[in-house]
Amino acid sequence: MFHILKSEGDQRLVFGWANVSVTVDGKQVEDLEGDVIDPEELEKAAYAYVLDFRDAGELHDQGLRKKARLVESCVFTPDKLAAMGIPEGTVPLGWWVGFYVDDDETWEKIKNGTYTMFSIEGRGEREPVAKSAKTFQEIVRNGR
């Protein structure tokens, strides 16, 4: 559910969830740092990224920028799911992305399984919240 999907052949296209806020069964996702992102905040962050950046790097390293370019982006919110006729609980509330990978070394790392997931880099203000029932690791391990 959270892993990168590679296109068939050698088209250098990868797709996947940049972030999931709420699983299909309604649980808020806690990431590896113990943070959660409300769908509304994720939507704002996604739009800022698309407007201002649109490229991908490696491992959040400033020296490893411009490795891939955004080709697809959709933030799934309750309103958008309703507008598309997708029943609630069919797909998670989250940000789906696709990238064309320009860099040969990065593409090889994707093909050989070194990189299997997306990770969004961002800044935010931490606010204490009640912990979710499932951790990110449990969701990845169990598929939901």
- The share of residues in extended strands comes to 15-25%
What gap, in angstroms, lies between the N and C termini?
Answer: 7 Å
Which regions are unreliable across 5 or more consecutive residues at pLDDT < 50?
A: none
Strand order of the largest sheet: 1-2-5-4-3
Number of strands: 5
How can the largest sheet be summarized? 5 strands, antiparallel
Based on CA atoms alone, the radius of gyration comes out at: 15 Å
Which structural class best describes the helix and strand composition? Answer: alpha+beta
Helix/strand order = EEHEEHEHH
| Chain-averaged pLDDT | 82
- Number of contiguous helices: 4
Q: Which outline best applies?
A: globular
Relative helix content: 25-40%
Keywords, separated by commas or semicolons:
144 residues, five-stranded antiparallel beta sheet
Can you describe this structure?
The chain is of the alpha+beta class. 25% of the residues lie in helices and 22% in strands. The protein is built from four helices and five strands, in the order ββαββαβαα. It has helices at residues 39-52, 78-84, 104-111, 136-142, and strands spanning 5-6, 13-22, 55-56, 68-76, 93-101. The protein has a five-stranded antiparallel β-sheet with strand order 1-2-5-4-3. A hairpin with a 6-residue loop joins β1 (5-6) and β2 (13-22). The protein is globular, with a radius of gyration of 15 Å. It starts with a strand and ends with a helix. 19% of the residues are buried.
